[in-house]
Amino acid sequence: MEDSSRPSAASGSGTDMYELNKDLERMTEDVENMAVQLTWMAYDMVTLRTGFEVEASMRELEEACRRCMAAVFGEPEPPEPEMNAGAEDADSAQS
């Protein structure tokens, strides 16, 4: 009689483990989704609090840093992207 109850207990524990794994997977996915949402919220806050002037200044600073490194290390200066040149022309035309 004991032997007949053991297989049902084993199959029950397998089902329980399957359910636990499924629940754990669902919870992990929920936490991952929350992390993604928090990352986007943080990104939105930074972009909203950062003015256009700061972004333009950072871009100019990065370009100046690249030019300095090219001058110091003797690397050829990469050509400037056409988008920035066009934007600068548009800005000067508006002034």
Envelope shape:
elongated
Structural class: mainly alpha
Describe the largest sheet.
none
Share in β-strands: under 5%
Cα-based radius of gyration, to the nearest Å: 30 Å
State the share of residues found in helices, binned by percent: over 70%
Q: Could you give the order of the helices and strands? A: HHH
Q: Whole-number average pLDDT?
A: 75
Ranges with pLDDT <50 over ≥5 residues? Answer: none
Our measurement of the CA-to-CA distance between the termini, rounded to an integer number of angstroms, reads: 94 Å
Count of alpha/pi helices:
3
Quaternary organization? single chain
**Number of strand elements:** 0
Q: How does the SSE layout of this entry go?
A:
Elements: H1 2-49, H2 52-73, H3 82-94
What can you see in these coordinates?
The chain is mostly helical and 95 residues long. The mean pLDDT is 75. The protein is built from three helices and no strands. Helix content is 87%, strand content 0%.
Describe the structure concisely for a colleague.
The protein is 87% helix and 0% strand.
Task: Name a few traits of the molecule.
about 100 residues, mainly alpha, 3 helices, about 85% helix, about 0% strand
